[in-house]
Amino acid sequence: MNFVKSVEKISRWSGTLSAWLIIPLMLTVVYEVICRHIFNNPTSWSYDTAWMLFSAQFLIGGAYTLLKKAHIRIDIVYNVLSERRKVIFDLWIHILVIAMPALLFTWAGIRFAAEAWVANEKLSTTNWFFPAGPPKTLIPLGFFLLALQSIAEIICLIQGTKGRRDQ
Q: Which of 47, 81, 105, 111 could lock onto 85 through a cystine, CB 3.0 to 4.6 A?
């Protein structure tokens, strides 16, 4: 259970970080809107910055969303299942739909990010040419956090502590 509590602490931390990312994201968008529409002088960096911040928020916040059971579930099917079948359903979902793909994306994402760092790849969506390594590193990090939280959920389901620990 110590592993589960540690993972949940990491997931809560990642959720807090994800929530705080909304501030620089909002400031970037507001700044760009003011520059573009009031001063007729758009920035060369705000588009890249906004999508990188949103991507970071999405990737880093996935584990927290799973911790809080806020991901989409087909309740029309789930609600008609008995408690035992809900546990079995949740186990299959966590193993096949979340943990396994997240681990595969972590592995592939590490290679993807490493190639960007080694090649000193630059993002060319605008003329800013920001290094691709930092945002691409968030891909394996986000999926690894999601996989960890899913494994913690699997442990809780197997141990019968599905009801949730200190939410």
A: 81
Q: With contact defined as beta carbons under 8 Å apart, do 22 and 47 qualify?
A: no
**Is 57's pLDDT higher than 60?**
yes
Instruction: Report d(CA 5, CA 152) in Å as an integer.
Output: 8
Q: What angle do CA 64, 165, 92 make, to 5 degrees?
A: 65
Contact 15, 67 (CB under 8 A): yes
Q: What angle do CA 96, 89, 74 make, to 5 degrees?
A: 95
Per-residue pLDDT reduced to its tens digit, 26-48: 999 999 999 999 999 999 889 88
List beta partners, residue 131: 122
Q: Provide φ and ψ at 131, rounded to 5°.
A: -60, 135
pTM for the structure as a whole: 0.89
Tokens, residue 34: 């003011």
Asked if 167 contacts 68 with a C-beta cutoff of 8 angstroms, the reply is yes
pLDDT digits over 111-157, tens only?
A: 999 999 999 999 877 778 889 999 999 999 999 999 999 999 999 99
Q: For residue 145, what are its two tokens?
A: 């956090």
Q: Please, what's the b/e burial string for 68-93 (b: 16 or more CB within 10 A of its CB; e: otherwise)? A: eeeeeeeeeeeeeeeeeeebebbeeb
Among all chains, which residue has been given the structure tokens 């540690």? 6
